[in-house]
Amino acid sequence: MGKRVLLIAGLLAGALTLFAATPMTKLSIEVKTQGGHPVDRAGVVVRFVEGRSYVKLGKKIRTTYEMRTNQEGLARIPEIPQGKILIQVIAKGYQTFGHTFDVDEEEKTIEIKLNPPQAQYSAHE
């Protein structure tokens, strides 16, 4: 009986180690214009690309979030695995933004400045 208790305790310790081995990050994405004004209602997609394992206790962790910024231009992402993440931002009247970031902190704010649209050209002028 004592060996069973030790075995179970060892398995629980291993499971807790696995749980702790997946570092997570709480992200805030701050979307602004080039002039520093917040962009509200911008579509933000955050996707985990690569890094450490993203499985906790046999359960897959959520690795993609889609949301909109609030009036202050903020989108808060609850938790995503640390490593490379892709952030895409789409807002009416601005160029679409897409970039990969390395994230290794427990909490991080990433500021994104959107560019105005570029002039469109026609080959038939």
Structure overview:
The chain has 125 residues and is α+β, with helices and mostly antiparallel strands. It has one domain (2-114): Carboxypeptidase-like, regulatory domain (Immunoglobulin-like, Sandwich), CATH 2.60.40. Helix content is 15%, strand content 47%. The protein contains one helix and nine strands. The protein has a four-stranded antiparallel β-sheet with strand order 5-2-7-8, with no helix packed on it. Strands 6-1-9 form a three-stranded mixed β-sheet, with no helix packed on it. A two-stranded antiparallel sheet has the order 3-4. The protein starts with a helix and ends in an 11-residue tail after the last strand.
CATH homology-level superfamily = Carboxypeptidase-like, regulatory domain
CATH topology: Immunoglobulin-like
Structural domains: how many:
1
The biggest beta sheet reads: 4 strands, antiparallel
Spans of 5+ residues with little confidence (pLDDT < 50)?
Answer: none
**Count of alpha and pi helical runs:** 1
Q: Any key phrases for this structure?
A:
4-stranded antiparallel β-sheet; alpha+beta; single chain; about 120 residues; 3-stranded mixed β-sheet
Short description:
With 125 residues, the protein is of the alpha+beta class. The chain has one helix and nine strands, in the order αβββββββββ.
Layout of strands and helices, then pairs:
Layout: H1 2-20, E1 24-33, E2 43-51, E3 55-56, E4 59-60, E5 64-68, E6 74-81, E7 83-90, E8 97-103, E9 107-114
Parallel strand pairs: 1-9
Antiparallel strand pairs: 1-6, 2-5, 2-7, 3-4, 7-8
